[in-house]
Each structure stands twice: as structure tokens, then as C-alpha cells.
């Protein structure tokens, strides 16, 4: 069975209370529950990890190799700063979808830069929590096509 890791970076543990005008009222556990439902419908398996630490995220990406078939990754602010996370994704060779709840392109200029987009299969942003389900669907479809 196809297995996808949903990986969340810094401050995403605070979803639900963090700037709800931008990120909404849905908590990370609620997003994870809805991912589980989507995964059931798609007939795939899903695992979750969240960390506020760059190195721990790198370790999670390394550990995904041989265990998961792809990664849905909301790297939070590290998206805009981390060459190390970009290298980690390139190094494991797993298809990764870059995800953002908010439309980063409609926000401050520093959020328009992403070190991850260049190593991503695709990017989903601006659809709030629904983006996670869209990303799972897109990645599961890609993995099925890739056989
Ligand atoms: C985010 C967008 C980033 O710019 C920000 O630093 C985040 C969340 C999003 O999901 O919209 O922490 O990745």
C-alpha cells in the first residue's frame, strides 16, 4: 500500500490559535484526522510528523526513505530560508508536494521565495486545510501513474 508522510514544520503545531485570520481555526490534529479520512478513501496509508526544529525535519525526511513513498511538506517559514531542507528532499529522492495553507504569493515579498519549489513535484497553496487533502490526492495519483 502506498504510504505518504505528512510533515509539518515550525509553528504549525499552533494551528487553530495562531493568526486565525490567516491560517483559520482548524487545529493540526483536526487536519490530521481529515487526512486519515482522505487516505481511507484513496486506499493509501498516511503518517504524520511535526517539528519546530530544522534538524529534526531533516531527520524525518531522511527516515522517510524506504518507509514512505512520498511526502506532503508544509515547511512553514523554513520554506523561505532552508537550503538544508531543500538538500534533504533532493537527497532522499522521494516525490514531495510543497504545501501552504495561505497563498504565500499574496503575502509579504519574502514569502514569495521558496527553496523547496525547485525540488517539489508540485506546490499547493491558498486552500487552507483542504490543501492537505488535495496534496494527498495529487501525490497518490502521481505514485499510481509512476507504478
Ligand atoms: C505557511 C506559510 C509560511 O510563509 C509561514 O511561515 C508558515 C505557514 C502556510 O502554511 O501558509 O508558517 O507555510
Describe this structure in words.
The chain is of the alpha/beta class. It has one domain: Dehydroquinase, class II (Rossmann fold), CATH 3.40.50.9100. The protein has 5 helices and 5 strands. The protein has helices at residues 20-23, 28-42, 54-64, 83-92, 130-146; strands at 3-8, 45-50, 70-74, 96-100, 122-125. Strand 3, helix 4 and strand 4 form a beta-alpha-beta unit. The mean pLDDT is 97. The site of 1,3,4-trihydroxy-5-OXO-cyclohexanecarboxylic acid has 10 residues, from loops.
Class in CATH? Answer: Alpha Beta
Following the backbone from N to C, one meets helices and strands in this order, namely EHHEHEHEEH
Output the number of helix runs: 5
Radius of gyration, rounded?
14 Å
Number of domains: 1
* Main sheet attributes: strand count, strand direction, barrel closure: 5 strands, parallel
Distance between the termini: 12 Å
Arithmetic mean pLDDT? 97
Strand order of the largest sheet: 2-1-3-4-5
Spans where pLDDT lies below 50 across 5 or more residues: none
Bound molecules: 1,3,4-trihydroxy-5-OXO-cyclohexanecarboxylic acid
The assigned structural class equals alpha/beta
Named at the architecture level, the CATH assignment is 3-Layer(aba) Sandwich
Helix content: 25-40%
Q: What is the strand content? A: 15-25%
Amino acid at each position: 500500500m502506498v504510504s505518504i508522510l505528512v510533515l509539518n514544520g515550525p509553528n504549525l503545531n499552533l494551528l487553530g490559535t495562531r493568526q486565525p485570520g490567516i491560517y483559520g481555526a482548524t487545529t493540526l490534529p483536526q487536519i490530521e484526522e481529515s487526512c486519515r479520512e482522505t487516505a481511507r478513501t484513496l486506499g493509501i496509508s498516511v503518517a504524520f510528523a511535526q517539528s519546530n526544529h530544522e534538524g529534526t525535519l531533516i531527520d524525518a525526511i531522511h527516515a522517510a526513505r524506504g518507509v514512505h513513498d512520498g511526502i506532503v511538506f508544509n515547511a512553514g517559514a523554513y520554506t523561505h530560508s532552508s537550503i538544508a531542507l531543500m538538500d534533504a528532499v533532493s537527497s532522499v529522492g522521494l516525490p514531495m508536494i510543497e504545501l501552504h495553507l495561505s497563498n504565500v504569493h499574496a503575502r509579504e515579498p519574502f514569502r514569495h521565495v521558496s527553496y523547496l519549489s525547485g525540488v517539489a513535484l508540485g506546490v499547493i497553496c491558498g486552500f487552507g486545510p483542504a490543501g492537505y487533502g488535495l496534496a494527498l490526492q495529487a501525490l497518490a495519483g502521481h505514485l499510481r501513474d509512476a507504478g
